[in-house]
Design a protein that fits this description.
With 106 residues, the protein is an alpha+beta fold. The protein has one domain: HIT-like (HIT family, subunit A). Helix content is 22%, strand content 25%. It contains 2 helices and 5 strands; from the N terminus they run H-E-E-E-H-E-E. It has a 5-stranded antiparallel sheet, with helices on one face. The longest helix has 17 residues. The chain is globular, with a radius of gyration of 13 Å.
Length: 106
């Protein structure tokens, strides 16, 4: 999907620094953080939202990526959030998982 901002980030169009990555996902800092640490886990495969994700293996790999990237960032405790749909606060329509730690400003 050429117009998707997350697809562009994954493709290297913005020189975004990945704090963690694997064959399934990239992880980078949210540009509008809602916590002291606010990371985004974004699958390399474009999927609009959790409602469209029908790949159980990918979903499992994404959750393992959450764990692994939080550990790599030195986080012992954190919150995960998946906004699904506009009404739930999803702003970028490429499924992603928020990792929030420290003081949270929701």
């Amino acid at each position: 999907m050429t117009e998707c901002i997350f697809c562009k980030i994954i493709n290297g169009d913005f020189n975004t620094e990945f704090v963690y990555e694997n064959e399934y996902a990239v992880v980078f800092r949210d540009i509008n953080p809602k916590a002291d640490t606010h990371l985004l886990v974004v699958p390399r495969k474009h999927v609009e939202s959790l409602n469209e994700l029908d790949d159980e293996v990918l979903l499992g790999k994404l959750m393992m990526t959450v764990r692994d990237s939080a550990k790599a960032a030195g986080l012992k405790s954190y919150r995960t959030v998946i906004n699904t749909g506009k009404e739930a606060g999803q702003e970028v329509f490429h499924m992603h998982i928020h990792i929030l730690a420290g003081s949270i400003k929701l």
